[in-house]
Amino acid sequence: MRLDKLLTRNRVIDLSSRDPKAVLAEMVELVCKSDPKVNPERLLKALLARENTLTTALGQGVAIPHARLPMKRRFICAVGRSAQGIIYDQSQPQPVHLVVMLVASSEEKSFLRVLNATADLAKDVDTVKRIVHAESPEEAFKIITRTWGPSTARVPTTHGALNRSLMSHAIALGRQHYVTSVFLFADALSNLDQASRLCADYDVIVVTRNKPEQYRNDKRVKDVIQISSGSGDRVGQLKLAMLLALTRGLIRRDERIICIAGLPGSGLLDTLVLVDAAREYQMLFSPEEVPLPEDLRPEVLERVIGIAGSLAAEGREGKPVGTIFVVGDTDHVQKSCRPMVINPFYGYREDDRNILDPFMEETVKEFSSIDGAFIIRGDGVIMSAGSYLLPGIPGQELPSGYGARHEAAAGITASTHAIAIVISQSTRQVSVFRKGAMITALDTKGQSKANNLSR
């Protein structure tokens, strides 16, 4: 999603109000000028109802109020700036300086994905500051279109010869082994111009720990897989990327894939791997079996793994946490668990407790300290937290050092079609279970140390 495609110059303004309700009314007036068919009273009521359920203040001086209404247009976006700041939520003392309003048609199926992408863009602190402190709304609009639109980064000359050499070897290796797809861990590069020859020869699947939107509109890219920023282990990232590619149908299980990677931000590609997908996952999937439960959407699994990776690396209030997420096949899973505490998600609308909503991330992290598991439906709706998983069919024997959470994850996935993601409190490792076995494990210790050093 490119925010610049949803925005026009006349929908970027300087806010005169400082009261949250008055700010929303000001933004509603702006949106309704763009589309007179939108009912302002109905829109304001929907926005306030969302705020009363869960604040849309994202932190770092940004709020993203949003609502869905019956309308012909898919989306309307508006941006408001406040130099003085707005006390948007009494529980968050940090004032809001940038308000990005997103209104979507009630029939728009991609709403949560677009909302999540908008939240990812708004987490770019430097860009937010530039927008807020721009001399005029016109200049702010230009900054938005330059930075939240198509990538304009220049190709660095550093390591150019080495990168070209590795690309040549990759192309030759791919031809020798009948490879059609390449995983490019693109965070090492500033943009894909350095990989243009590779893109011309193969179906390139970009793997990134950063915002995927800069690649989605690139015609040279087949698709984009976002790996959690907490996933510091390169081998673990590769296994996870393969699993997610299989679930989306981007690669076949009888396919060989070339993977090219480098240290993020280095400008240097230093790793070339040839992987046999069938050999990697032959113990987990039979030839006729699909990798995911029928009810589980791939983007839900990606979102849960992303949150788990972030939570494992950062912990909560400076302390490591451990928890389990059980995703998919919910009807059978709920028969194999019981509540340990009163369910904190009970009674809320399904749209307000969907894991794909970026504003649910902080809520999930807050409840991660509760003993027990999160039970998540295949479409992303969180059914419960603090659920005790009853002993079921034993999973495969686990290596030494894995505890009760991992045994519970192995057991629930052995007796149902669900996938379980476990965060180890002691090792900060994120493990993914399917059919009673561990599919992959992501080591986040390195990322945790980097986070601590950057504070």
What is the compact description of this entry?
By secondary structure, the chain is an alpha/beta fold. It has helices at residues 3-6, 20-34, 40-53, 111-122, 125-132, 137-147, 160-176, 196-201, 213-216, 234-248, 277-281, 298-314, 330-334, 360-367, 404-415, 445-454, and strands at 12-14, 57-59, 62-63, 66-69, 75-86, 96-105, 181-185, 203-208, 221-226, 256-261, 271-276, 323-327, 337-339, 373-376, 382-389, 419-423, 429-434, 437-443.
Shape annotation: globular
The major beta sheet can be summarized as:
7 strands, mixed
Cα distance spanning the termini? 30 Å
Helix content: 25-40%
Tally of helical runs:
16
Describe this structure in words.
The chain is α/β, with parallel strands linked by helices. It has three domains: 3-147, Mannitol-specific EII, Chain A (3-Layer(aba) Sandwich); 160-281, Pyruvate kinase, C-terminal domain (Pyruvate Kinase, Chain: A, domain 1, 3-Layer(aba) Sandwich), CATH 3.40.1380.20; 298-450, DNA integrity scanning protein, DisA, N-terminal domain (YojJ-like (1, 3-Layer(aba) Sandwich), CATH 3.40.1700.10. 36% of the residues lie in helices and 22% in strands. It has helices spanning 3-6, 20-34, 40-53, 111-122, 125-132, 137-147, 160-176, 196-201, 213-216, 234-248, 277-281, 298-314, 330-334, 360-367, 404-415, 445-454; strands at 12-14, 57-59, 62-63, 66-69, 75-86, 96-105, 181-185, 203-208, 221-226, 256-261, 271-276, 323-327, 337-339, 373-376, 382-389, 419-423, 429-434, 437-443. Strands 13-15-14-12-16-17-18 form a seven-stranded mixed β-sheet, sandwiched between helices. Helix 2 (20-34) crosses helix 3 (40-53) and helix 5 packs antiparallel against helix 6. The longest helix has 17 residues, at 160-176.
